[in-house]
Design a protein that fits this description.
By secondary structure, the protein is α/β, with parallel strands linked by helices. The chain is built from seven helices and seven strands, in the order H-E-E-H-E-E-H-H-E-H-E-E-H-H.
């Protein structure tokens, strides 16, 4: 049987309100040793913020991380898959969008997140890492 996204995803990813500060997200990332936070509005995923986003979109611009909201720096065009979709579907979506992580949702409920690292750790489609690593910065 084909491996599904459910088999490789990180369940219960860290999610924070779009009103949370960049500093709060950075602290959570540091404390939990993670690199991504799902941004929520009205209990639904509306974006994603990575440690790189914090560096490039908040700190490098000279902004104050304690006053910049996640809504101001998150990537809103999030890509999502369902937990019952195949890992192949997830890989194809990552390749087509040149991205390294996907939100996993059932309807509009956050179920997990699947990253390039999750796939690489399981030895899934080795060329996906090379393909996505060639993506333009900030994806």
């Amino acid at each position: 049987m084909a491996t599904t996204v459910r088999d490789v995803m990180t369940k219960d990813p860290v999610a924070m309100s779009s009103d949370a500060s960049v500093a709060e997200a950075a602290k959570a990332m540091s404390d939990l040793r993670i690199g991504t936070v799902v941004v929520m509005e009205q209990d639904k995923p509306c974006g994603i913020v990575t440690d790189r986003d914090i560096t490039v979109r908040a700190v490098a611009t000279g902004g104050d991380p304690s006053t910049i909201r996640l809504a101001d720096i998150c990537t809103r065009d999030i890509a999502a898959v369902r937990p019952d979709q195949s890992v192949g579907d997830a890989i194809q979506l990552m390749k087509s969008r040149d991205i390294k992580r996907l939100v996993v949702m059932t309807d509009s409920k956050l179920e997990g997140i699947v990253s390039l690292g999750d796939l690489a750790a399981r030895g899934e489609d080795a060329d996906v890492e090379d393909d996505i690593s060639r993506a333009e910065p900030n994806n």
